[in-house]
């Protein structure tokens, strides 16, 4: 997969530290601890490309990875962007608000953003913050792929019920696909990969 070739490009504390908009970008967002880092690592087939920073007060960064163009050495076919997890309880209000602005700014203003991957814990379903983010994203028309991760934690029947509930809940919000996913048990990886690759090179 194209995603397996992802390499680290830059960590940015602010939006203006990112390279100017270039090839198509796919960003990953989600509540802290939902399983975003694990999802990125399994999709890129790398052990520690993404890592979650759970240290309170530590600057949370936007990490950007590049997907090398096999036909044009030195050029990127696309980028993966790991956004800081939201809703982390130990972060104080000011820092949280600051990050909401950074996150919101990226999602709203980045012209090269081709699609958004939203990572949710299948056992928690759509949380208030997830709902707010999805509603807020909808008018932009950007496609969203919801990875309902840790699907291995639910037996098959419950898993399918949870997926159906999320699809129903978010059905009105434009171009949105929800799939069961597990980084540890490798569920949904091919489907997610195909979806993301199609955003990068349709
Ligand atoms: P992040 O904060 O969203 O980046 O979350 P992490 O990827 O660090 O995962 C949070 C916790 O959930 C860790 O303990 C992971 O080992 C665990 N986890 C992540 N994905 C899965 C999964 O698919 N299945 C199971 N069982 N555990 C997972």
TrEMBL record:
Pfam families: MMR_HSR1 (PF01926)
Domain of life: Bacteria
Protein keywords: Cell cycle, Cell division, GTP-binding, Magnesium, Metal-binding, Nucleotide-binding, Septation
Cofactor or coenzyme needed: Mg(2+)
Record carries keyword Transit peptide: no
InterPro entries: G_ENGB_dom, GTP-bd, GTP-bd_ribosome_bio_YsxC, P-loop_NTPase
Record domain EngB-type G: where: 22-202
Similarity comment: family membership: Belongs to the TRAFAC class TrmE-Era-EngA-EngB-Septin-like GTPase superfamily. EngB GTPase family.
Record PANTHER family: ENGB-TYPE G DOMAIN-CONTAINING PROTEIN (PTHR11649:SF13), MSS1/TRME-RELATED GTP-BINDING PROTEIN (PTHR11649)
Known function: Necessary for normal cell division and for the maintenance of normal septation.
Protein name per its UniProtKB record: Probable GTP-binding protein EngB
Organism: Mesopusillimonas faecipullorum
Organism taxonomic ancestry: Bacteria, Pseudomonadati, Pseudomonadota, Betaproteobacteria, Burkholderiales
């Amino acid at each position: 997969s194209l995603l397996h070739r992802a390499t680290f490009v830059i960590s940015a504390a602010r939006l203006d530290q990112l390279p100017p908009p270039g090839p198509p970008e796919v960003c990953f967002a989600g509540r802290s601890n939902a399983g975003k880092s694990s999802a990125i690592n399994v999709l890129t087939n790398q052990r520690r490309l993404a890592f979650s920073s759970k240290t309170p007060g530590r600057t949370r960064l936007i990490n950007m990875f590049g997907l090398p163009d096999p036909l044009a050495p030195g050029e990127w076919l696309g980028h993966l962007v790991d956004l800081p997890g939201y809703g982390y309880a130990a972060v104080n209000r000011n820092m949280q608000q600051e990050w909401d602005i950074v996150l919101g700014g990226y999602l709203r203003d980045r012209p090269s953003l081709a699609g958004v991957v939203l990572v949710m814990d299948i056992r928690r379903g759509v949380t208030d913050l997830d709902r707010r983010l999805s509603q807020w994203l909808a008018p932009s028309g950007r496609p969203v792929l919801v990875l309902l991760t840790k699907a291995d934690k639910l037996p098959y029947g419950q898993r399918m019920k949870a997926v159906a509930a999320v699809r129903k809940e978010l059905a009105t919000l434009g171009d949105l696909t929800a799939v069961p996913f597990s980084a540890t048990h490798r569920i949904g990886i091919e489907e997610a990969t195909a979806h993301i690759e199609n955003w990068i090179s349709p």
